Amino acid sequence: MLEFPAPGLFITGANGCGKTNLLEAVAYLSSGKSIRLKPDSELVRFGQEFFRLSGEVEYSGSRHTIEVACDTNHIKTISIDSVQIDRLSELYRGFKTVYSAPGDVEIVTGSPGERRRFFDLAIAQHDVTYLDYLRRYRQVLKQRNQLLKERFNRAEKEAWDNSFVEATLPVIEKRLSYLDEFRPVLREYYRDISGEKEELQVEYKFEIPTSSGEKFQESYLKAITTSEDREREQCRTLFGPHLADWDFLLDGKRVRSFASQGQNRSIAIALRLVQAEMVKRSTGESPVLMLDDVLAELDASRRSNILNMLHGQHQVLIAAPDIGDYRDFNLPVLNLTDKPERGSVL
Amino acid sequence: MSYKQLENLQQALKKLPGIGSKTARRLAYYMVSRNTGHAMMLADAITSAIEANNPCPECNLLTEGELCEFCADPERNQSLLCVVQDAQDVMLIENTHEFKGRYFVLGGLLSPLHGIGPEEIHFPQLKKLVEELPLTEIILALNPSAEGDTTIHYIVEKFETMPFKITRLATGIPFGGDIEYTTPVTLTNALFRRYEAD
């Protein structure tokens, strides 16, 4: 059993002592999946048959017990207050965490898929209907891609096109409305991190040309007709939310082509802080914010700017090998090197 | 020693819906060793049921007669047609005692992943029936899934110029249900399609 104090915890210890594992366990309770995208079977301790994880967490104004059990056959059961749940999304609607790790820099510099994963999960935390709409979209997409591989009649294609556009609209509308709220917070946070020096912008990149005043529906139906030959040739859907991207601009210039390492890292952290703020805005409750050794490569002023921004905002769990500058932050300290490692962390 | 025939029986039983390997083995041994009289009766019953039942030429519902009981009944309202996915959906709707029109069983929903296109859902047959009946309304009682919605798009598109109206089942909060346990999208739909309380 481990108790996390309300303001948070500073977790320290030598490399390999289990700092990330501890944060990962907390994150697992909110998503039912490994935050590092590892298959469940790899989370089972070597030589053991299963893992169990349970935690008492507070959300929606009351305490809840979340339990996860998984064996090597990938059979996983999750229960909230002793009631087994059928869908991971039920977990997602309750206990919320935001996890910031060095690998997040990929959201800024990596492939569009990294940005889609970040925004899709962030929006799902913010809007309870998003995952259901996204699931519908993916199902229609799968069917439509299969259709494009076969011989089909005109009306059948039109029916799938209609379903496709219908499934597309809520996904895009929710991405855009999330971004409208996200954008000003990101600008403000990034200004604070960089010390009022830099202006960060983010834009949703439409994969189809949209002229102003035209409804998405019309733009999509137009794109479908103009790209039909290419779609048949490649046997897949060539536009839609599954291919969309977001552009980051720093002082008007594209981040991916010119920003420095430090700037990329600062942006990655800013994204996580805004994600946490968005959860707070939609639910009225702060998520648990975890920073897994993300400040190490920033300069001292950015580091202290970020720590100042965190003060009193969320329950913060910070993991780093040395306490260093974090001392001023006044969090209770847990040194994992002092403790013999045991199976139960929570 | 080999038990080839017994194996065949087990395999055949295993293909039935809801029957796994263990149940299949139990049933096979029971039929062959314990109660062969009953098993022979079952074999006969299966054969005669299959021989006696044919899809109704008008609506595809299984029937032992020429036409199914609904298509043969002149009392049914000929201006209303309810389109369903499977034969068991007909029974569900009949049990409500609210629908007095005719039925049509598609036998599936459009799904390229399962190789189901317009021919597989008997669309040509539906079209023929629709042209013969003096319809004022078609009710599409299909699942609100990706496949169900697309099938609805297809049918609506095809019958666009016809003189009847096409409706689909409402989605919303189950009767006697609890808003708390309604999925968010269902709740969104229910809110969107709210109606005046009187």
Question: How is the topology of this model organized?
Answer:
The complex is a heterodimer of chains A (346) and B (198).
Chain A: E1 8-12, H1 19-31, E2 50-59, E3 62-71, E4 76-80, E5 83-84, H2 88-92, E6 97-100, H3 105-109, H4 112-126, H5 130-148, H6 154-194, E7 200-205, H7 216-226, H8 228-234, E8 245-250, E9 253-254, H9 255-258, H10 261-283, E10 288-292, H11 300-310, E11 315-319, E12 333-335
Parallel strand pairs in A: 1-11, 1-12, 6-10, 10-11
Antiparallel strand pairs in A: 2-3, 3-4, 4-5, 7-8, 8-9
Helix pairs in contact in A: 5-6, 6-7, 6-10, 6-11
Chain B: H1 4-14, H2 21-34, H3 36-52, E1 54-55, E2 62-63, H4 69-72, E3 77-84, H5 87-95, E4 101-105, H6 123-132, E5 137-141, H7 146-158, E6 165-168, H8 184-192
Helix pairs in contact in B: 1-2, 2-3
Structure in words:
The complex is a heterodimer of chains A (346) and B (198). Helix content of chain A is 45%, strand content 18%. By secondary structure, chain A is an alpha/beta fold. Chain A has a domain at 111-283: RecF/RecN/SMC, N-terminal domain (Glutathione S-transferase Yfyf (Class Pi), Chain A, domain 2, Up-down Bundle). Chain A is globular. Mean pLDDT of chain A is 85; it is low at 340-346. In chain B, helix 1 (4-14) crosses helix 2 (21-34). Chain B is globular. Chain A binds chain B through residues 128-129, 132-133, 136, 139-140, 142-144, 146-147, 149-150, 152-153, 155-156, 158-160, 162-163, 166-167, and chain B through 110-113, 117-118, 145-147, 149-151, 153-154, 157-158, 183-185, 188.
Précis, in short:
Chain A is an alpha/beta fold and 346 residues long.
